Amino acid sequence: MNLRNKISISLIALSLSFTAIHANKNIKNTDPEKDKILVYVLKNILTRGHFVVKDMNDDFSEQVYTSFIEGLDPSKRYFTQKDLKEFSKFKYEIDNQLLEDDVSFYNTVYANFTEKIKNAKSYYGELLAQPFRFNKNETIDIDYDKVPFAKNENQLIDYWRKQLKLNVLSRVQNKIEKQDDKIKKDSKTKKKSFNDLEKEARAEVLKNMDELYLRIEELEHEDWFSTFLNSVVGAFDPHTTYMAPRTKERFDQDMSGKLEGIGARLLKKGIYTEIFELVSGGPAWKQGELEAGDVIIEVAQGDKEPLDIVGMRLDDAIKFIKGKKGTEVRLTVKKKLDGTTRIISIIRDVVELEETFVKSTIVEKEGKKYGLINLPRFYIDFSDIDSRDSAKDMEKEIARLKSENVSGLLIDLRNNGGGSLKTAIEIAGLFITEGPVVQVKYRGQDPIVKNDENPKMQWDGAVVVLVNELSASASEIFAAAMQDYGRAVIIGGNQTYGKGTVQSVIPINNFYPKYEKDLGAIKMTIQKFYRVNGGSTQIEGVYSDIAMPNKYSYMKFGERDLTGALIWDKVPQANYTKTNSYENFSDVINKSKNRIALDEQFKLINEYAKWLKENQEDTSYSLNFRDFSKESALLEVASKKYTNAFKNKTKLNFESPKYEFQLIEKDSVLGDKRTAWHKNLAKDIYVAEALNVLKDLKLKNTTDTVRN
Question: Is 499 an annotated catalytic residue?
Answer without folding.
Answer: yes
